[in-house]
Write a structure and sequence with these properties.
heterodimer; A: alpha+beta; Cytochrome p450; three-stranded antiparallel β-sheet; B: alpha+beta; Alpha-Beta Plaits; two-stranded antiparallel sheet
């Protein structure tokens, strides 16, 4: 191909290349999918297809992503035709996701969001600090008392995140194997539809038992609080609350555990930033925000569907179109984050979209941040010579899952 | 500068409290933002603008003046 041909626009005789399929794989664990850069050059919004071949619009820009995700005519209801399927047959799981706040639209969303939001305010979360510190401290003590090398994912990240959400919800921690395994199966793209349905049934069964018990005997855990609030609002429905609990349990342990693992790796890969952080733990909020931006583990979940014809940044989008705003792309937008591929704990990362944007922005973000701040501070304080016991090239990342992460992270000290 | 929160839009994400804890707080009841200083002290004005323009995911904060 000559240079002239390479830069010429497609003519009617040339077949237009088929739009690329979302989601796209990450070639490097420390960078978003390479395809985003190419797509970003095509304009503010560019056509793609989802895994079922349905057309959608994708943006790689931070400003456009915010406008899409906060758009009043952008729905989060994944059962609406046109909503981007993140794995084939996603909409067939409709029955399993009743009560999931993340897939609701107003006015239903507004009612349940506010019942929960009061429980996750910054003040409430700060009050949990001693409880979180104890869980993290005990976890590190277990690591230090155990054999080396050790897999940080299964021996620290998952237990820490699971124990905290179990205590918060009032779910017996002894059931962790069940809910960790089931959540993994639900979120893995390698699961069959049958495996996913079985996993949902298992975790729903667990939470159904816990909620039935609490309904008889209210305590001071979050599920008891929600039972009271649902009753006060006259919307108590056992199955609906079970769905909400499944969502909270899954979101509460899987995402945080993934961030603990990739965040630890990210810090080990940037020894200068790590040394600075260890010398000054008050940097922890900045460190955590930069890690959230840098890894953007929930890259695939910031999707919507247009409920009416809309105009976004000069592009006409017909009703029923899928809207995809991958946050790993927005979080590397050089207009907002200069030199975006650099890991820099001194930049202002606060406006990253790792927790989404619009009315669905992560409800548990203050809890996740505090948990991560305590984990990284304490892990590197108590195990100062923590190091990787593997080549980075040999690590197995969760390339085939809704949330990015590590299957295992062998470490030693 | 005067700051106003639209309670119909607020979703209780708490970004305003992160950005300017002296000016905003969240209700324990529903997480919604409450303005502690409707006319923020000058030293918090940059943070209030950041909260309003960049951080609030529901675009519920308006700044006048």
């Amino acid at each position: 191909m000559t240079e002239a041909q390479a830069v010429s626009a497609p003519t009617p005789e040339q077949p237009t290349p088929a739009p690329p399929t979302f989601p796209m794989p990450r070639a490097c664990p420390f960078a978003p999918p390479a395809a985003y850069a190419e797509l970003g050059e095509k304009g503010p919004l560019t056509p793609v297809v989802d895994v079922e071949g349905t057309a959608a619009w994708l943006t790689t820009r931070h400003d456009v992503a915010r406008d899409l995700l906060a758009h009043p005519k952008a729905s989060k209801n994944l059962l609406r035709p046109g909503f981007p399927a993140l794995f084939p047959g996603a909409a067939a799981l409709a029955g399993e996701i009743k009560g999931f706040l993340i897939w609701m639209d107003p006015p239903e969303h507004t009612l349940y969001r506010h019942m929960l939001a009061g429980e996750f305010t910054m003040r409430r979360v700060q009050a949990m600090r001693p409880q979180i510190e104890k869980i993290v401290d005990d976890g590190i003590t277990r690591l230090l008392d155990g054999p080396r090398p050790v897999d940080l994912v299964h021996e620290f990240a998952l237990p820490t995140a699971s124990l905290l959400i179990s205590e918060l919800l009032g779910v017996p921690y002894s059931e962790r194997d069940l809910f960790q395994h089931a959540t993994g199966a639900i979120l893995s793209h390698e699961s069959t539809q049958e495996q996913r349905k079985t996993a949902f049934a298992q975790v729903r069964g667990l939470l159904s038992r816990v909620i039935a018990e609490r309904t008889e005997n209210l305590g001071d855990d979050l599920l008891s609080t929600l039972i009271r609030k649902y009753r006060e609002a006259d919307v108590f429905d056992h199955d609906h609350l079970v769905g909400m609990a499944v969502m909270l349990l899954g979101a509460g342990h899987e995402t945080t555990a993934n961030m603990i693992a990739v965040g630890t790796l990210g810090l080990l890969q940037h020894p200068e930033a790590l040394a600075e952080f260890r010398a000054d733990p008050s940097l922890s909020p900045r460190v955590v925000d930069e890690l959230l931006r840098y890894f953007s583990i929930g890259d695939h979940v910031t999707c919507r569907v247009a409920t009416e014809d809309i105009e976004v940044h000069g592009v006409h989008i017909p009703a029923g179109s899928g809207l995809i705003a991958p946050n790993a792309a927005a979080n590397r937008d050089p207009e907002v984050f200069p030199n975006p591929d650099a890991f820099d704990i001194h930049r202002n990362s606060r406006s990253h979209l790792a927790f989404g944007f619009g009315i669905h922005q992560c409800l548990g973000q203050h809890l996740a941040r505090l948990e991560l701040e305590i984990v990284f501070t304490e892990l590197f304080r108590r195990i100062p010579d923590l190091r990787l016991d593997s080549e980075v090239a040999d690590l197995q990342f969760k390339d085939q899952a809704l949330f990015y992460g590590l299957h295992r992270l062998p470490v030693t000290w | 500068m005067r700051v106003i929160v639209d309670h119909d839009l607020c979703v209780g994400a708490g970004q305003c409290v992160r950005a300017a804890p002296e000016v905003f707080e969240q209700s324990d009841l529903d997480g919604k933002s409450q303005v502690l200083q409707p006319v923020p002290d000058w030293k918090y004005q940059a943070a209030v603008r950041e909260a309003a323009v960049r951080m609030c995911p529901a675009r519920a904060i308006s700044v006048v003046g």
